[in-house]
Amino acid sequence: MVFVKTHDINELTADLIGNQVVLGGWVEDFRKLGKMSFITLRDVTGISQVIVKGELNDNLGEINRQSVVAVKGVVQETKARDFAFEIKADEIDVLGKAVHPLPVDPIGRVESNIDTRLNHRALDMRNQKTASIFKLRHHVLQSLRKTLAEKKFIEITTPKIIGSASEGGANLFSLEYFGQTAYLAQSPQLYKEQMTIGLERVFEISNFYRAENSHTGRHLSEFTSIDIEAAFMDYNDVMDVLESLVLNVYKDTSENYKAEQEVIGHTIEVPKSPFDRVTYSQCVEELKSAGEKIEFGDDLLDSHLRIIGDNHPGFFFLTDWPMKLKPFYIREKDEDPELSRSFDLQFGYLELSSGGTRLHNPDTLKARLKEQDLDPAQFQDHLKTFDWGMPPHSGWGMGLDRLMTTLIGIDNVREVVLYPRDPDRLKP
Q1: Tens of pLDDT along 99-117?
Q2: Is 275 helix (H, G, I), strand (E, B) or coil?
Q3: What is the mean pLDDT of residues 327-344?
Q4: Nearest-angstrom CA–CA distance, 129 and 259
Q5: Is 413 within 8 Å of 215 (Cβ atoms)?
Q6: At 69, which CATH number?
Q7: Widest CA span in the chain
Q8: Burial per residue of 284-314, b for 16 or more beta-carbon CB atoms within 10 angstroms, e otherwise
Q9: Of the residues 172, 206, 269, 290, which has the fewest C-beta atoms closer than 10 A?
Q10: Cα–Cα distance between 307 and 61 in angstroms, integer?
Q11: Same domain, 245 and 375
């Protein structure tokens, strides 16, 4: 038998009662009760009950749960409280048999730890909590692109195989590239700056790579980053863009995706705005008041950020960092050259984004590279673009995976990544 699927389960309505349909999905439950069998059929859109009677039931045999089936039958009313309609089956075809027992229980009645679920990720996607997380991730990406397009940003895609360190730092994966040494990009920083010459406002949503031997719930070796760069904007302007982007993501998902929130067991609440903007100097004073030993110019530790996060609940910007703590391309403040025009977006102690106003004067940029013991010759392909008329520009990068954890109230980024890569995980 060859069936052509005619409807998704969520398309079944009262208007279809008495009509024949063909559904396709997997068997979530199967009960054979004498002369009648009940199949709980699920597809990506919903769940339905299938009634099997007569000769078809007699010849049905046992169907393993999670097997994929096609069902041809008639839509009818049901007395079952969990279903709006049911299907009286005329024909059933097992398209893909599932083994028994399965390595994880997709229904979630028997819980598996995260490593076991990640080892069998495709099957884990039939768990409705897991599926709802990735449906929300899909909607978040749609929201991000919609907002950025409305703000006149143009989407770009930059190389992920590069010939030199994109930000002059360590933590790069290297590989042999036709007799040369190449690296996996840790950010699109230099490329997106260059694109402001002609496109002015650009954004990219892509995977990037960082060779940090970190074993925490917020670090990954391969992560998805949302990046923007905008000509003729300063760091306050791009902070405004970032804040509106986060607020729109929360509003869109909170208002439009109630079912996913219910399955996950978490209600998305739109954060208060405007976000607090706390200077680095303010942070130092708050930490000293809390009894911490810290001096101006010290980097902020997780323990410090937890204190600051308690003082400023929810999202907040941490601004005006000391220049010595920021990358070579960040511009100083005119009124105090020891401070930078930079910011981080925090959610408590969790850093979500980092950005600022960039240097656009080539001579200053070369001097800054030397100050940080970086060789300008290693950046010649980048530096030459600054001689072609580089506009003033600002930008930021934000971790999509970390944003997702704040949205759905979990603390492990591996839950929101299909196949996470970290120091301990290269497969599947």
Answers
A1: 999 999 999 888 899 999 9
A2: coil
A3: 96
A4: 11
A5: no
A6: 2.40.50.140
A7: 87
A8: bebbeeeeeebeeeeebeeebbebbbebbee
A9: 269
A10: 62
A11: yes
Which residue shows structure tokens 């940029």?
365
145 with 48, same domain? no
Tokens of 274: 């405007």
Per the listing, tokens 């006149």 go with 152
Which H or E run contains 241? helix 235-256
Give the domain extent around 18.
9-96
CA–CA dist 409, 427 (Å, integer) = 26
Cis status, amide bond into 428, omega within 30 of 0: yes
- Residue 216 is encoded by which pair of tokens? 């925490």
* Same domain for 64 and 177: no
pLDDT digits (tens, 9 = 90+) for 227-253: 999 999 999 999 999 999 999 999 999
In a domain, 3, yes or no: no
Q: Show the tokens assigned to 165.
A: 């360190």
Residue 328 lies in a domain: yes
Contact 352, 382 (CB under 8 A): no
| pLDDT of 3 | 76
Is 113 domain-assigned?
A: no
Give the residues across from 308 on adjacent strands.
none
Checking DSSP bridges between strand 393-399 and strand 222-231, what pairing results, if any? Answer: antiparallel
DSSP type of residue 389: T
- DSSP 3-state assignment of 176? strand
Measured at the alpha carbon of residue 285, what is the angle toward residues 281 and 288, in degrees to the nearest 5?
135
Please give the structure tokens belonging to residue 344.
């981080």
pLDDT digits over 256-310, tens only? 999 999 999 999 999 999 999 999 999 999 999 999 999 999 999 999 999 999 9
d(CA 39, CA 80): 13
Domain boundary among 96, 112, 139: 96
Higher pLDDT, 2 or 342: 342
The pLDDT value recorded for residue 52 is: 97
Spatial contact of 369 and 168, defined as CB atoms under 8 Å apart: yes
Residue 428 lies in a domain: no
